[in-house]
């Protein structure tokens, strides 16, 4: 009984390590986009990701065939949504460094879920408790803000896009 | 510029810089995760213990007090001589 328990634990640890090695990079990128930090200096995104993956680790035995990546992504989104206003809001406003630094936390969250992660609009709406028209509107507005910024750097963004498309 | 072009452009902006994975991430995650599991196990055990103690306490009280037995009447005086 004890030996079987230990073998089960070892198998779970291996599976989890493979999951972190495979999905960690993408999740860290998403977390860095959410916190709007520079890619090489992202302490808050790392902390967010560590907490999210620790939660996934604790739930690993109870997933019952559910996609662990999906679980981690949902937890990342809800944890960011709950912590964003009182924790990250003021800090990011003073240090806008990342690619999405111009957007508000909610716009970043919806943009990352919709376009970077490719989650369907209805699922994002259900996850955040918003009507899906609202998600659609916020996504459009965030896209417009990102592609046509109010003042600075409009030429660089449009130029880079025209060269590649 | 239509919708799919705009979305592609935004995707490109987001995928431009990829952060490096910190090497100590997995160990950190496992440490925190197992602490979370230990705490959950402890909390569950404590709750079961509390439930058990409550059941035992209630049983002992019920057996000693026997609240279902009708108490002897105290208002009517006993009838002795008539």
From TrEMBL, chain A:
One GO term of the biological process aspect: DNA-templated transcription initiation
Cellular component, GO annotation: DNA-directed RNA polymerase complex
One Gene Ontology molecular-function label: DNA-binding transcription factor activity
Keyword list, A-Z: DNA-directed RNA polymerase, Transcription
InterPro entries documented for this protein: RNA_pol_sigma70_r4, RNA_pol_sigma_r3/r4-like, WH-like_DNA-bd_sf
Annotated ranges, domain RNA polymerase sigma-70 region: 99-143
Full protein name: DNA-directed RNA polymerase sigma-70 factor
Source organism of the structure: Streptomyces aurantiogriseus
TrEMBL record, chain B:
Keywords: Membrane, Transmembrane, Transmembrane helix
Name under which the protein is recorded: Uncharacterized protein
Regions crossing the membrane: 46-69
